[in-house]
UniProtKB/TrEMBL annotation:
SUPFAM superfamilies, per the entry: Glutathione synthetase ATP-binding domain-like (SSF56059), PreATP-grasp domain (SSF52440), Rudiment single hybrid motif (SSF51246)
Originating gene: purD
Record domain ATP-grasp: where: 107-307
One GO MF term attached to the UniProt entry: phosphoribosylamine-glycine ligase activity
Keywords, comma-separated and alphabetical: ATP-binding, Ligase, Nucleotide-binding, Purine biosynthesis
Positions of region (Disordered): 432-455
Protein family (similarity comment): Belongs to the GARS family.
Name this polypeptide is given: Phosphoribosylamine--glycine ligase
Taxonomy of the source species: Bacteria, Bacillati, Actinomycetota, Actinomycetes, Micrococcales
Organism of origin: Arthrobacter halodurans
Amino acid sequence: MKVLVIGPGGREHAIVRALLADPYVSEVRCAPGNAGIAADVPVHAVDAQDPAAVVALARELGSTLVVIGPEAPLAAGAADALAAAGIPVFGPSKAAAQLEASKAFAKEIMAEAGVPTAMARVAVNTEEAADALDAFGAPYVVKDDGLAAGKGVVVTQDRAEALAHADSCFAAGGAVLIEEFLDGPEVSLFVVSDGKHAVPLAPAQDFKRISDGDLGPNTGGMGAYTPLPWLPAGFVDEVMERVAYPTIREMERRGTPFVGVLYCGLALTRRGIRVIEFNARFGDPETQAVLARLKTPLGGLLHAAATGALDDAEQLHWRPDSAVAVVLASANYPDAPVLGDPLAGVEEAEALEGVSVLHAGTSRNDAGELVSSGGRVLAVVGLGAELHAARGAAYRGVDRISLAGGQHRTDIALRAAEGAVGMPAGTAGAAGFTPGAAHSPEPAGPGSAADEASL
């Protein structure tokens, strides 16, 4: 199998590394990639949002599978063009990718499918936004309806700040969703779908805020960990039954089957599971942690989904280790990241036992030096027998790397490792979780204390 991965970031580097470990994959290439990916596989310049250019490259390379990483090429119709050219593609059509490209569309699908989610209103002007904010009250949740690279959400107690975010979206020609605030910890679950069948990966939790203690502005994600030892038994089964399969069936009913990864962003509230959002691709940085633990060959799984054969795919197997991913970001991220600063110590970090470094925003300058070229620069992934050990490995790796003004959180997976994360008080019996062992990818255990992860 010759696989072409489309995308430039850390998620794509994680996919590339996992594909390289697949004995059935004979060749891996990436476009456009980054400096870290280029050290592992050949990379190619391409405008990923030009479907014709993506098809031309796949044909030139003789690719037998194309994996699309980011949301923008999906929204541009790259998967449609590849499918029309007869090239197996892992990633949803433009119509199916509307689940991410339009939050209002996703709400419509959830309503039709009976999927539990937050109450919401769509607003297209200041007056409508103000009315919705007053209807739901604080904390205020305002989401840009379109693609915003994971940073289009404001959650605040300040009504003026919420309204200002809505106005900025209107000024850009967009609409907003204003939602009720969902309490409880958040969970990311990737569900691989071939349009009819679905396979869940291991649940993960990410950290959106820039600073320790979930403080500061939203980012694309500053770290993640998996597994989640505090999840109740039956969690994954419950999500598949109440969220993933109803959504996949509704998309198929509409004539727009969903092929790819349905990213389910979930809140575990006192009233049970609620969907915060859907994404139409692997999440970043959760992918870096999740794929570090996957033993099943990734190429075969993605090819089965792309060709409608997921029902015959082998059962997934996972390493018993925990994985923690810590993101190193540029100075001034997420507002106005400083780019072009040299990186040092990456090779030393990768030489540590249980540590891998996945590149996101890196490139080579004219002198051949490794430099930052994006807001999120690297993800350092640590593997260990349990979360404490995985955290230790990840942070030992981070400590080896230097970047002027670089930022990272020091509390990724800390509360979970200390046993301080759990279901909200009063959840018992309300979430519909099936008692007993789940046939989820993880043995799940109950938590003890509520954790308010940021949206």
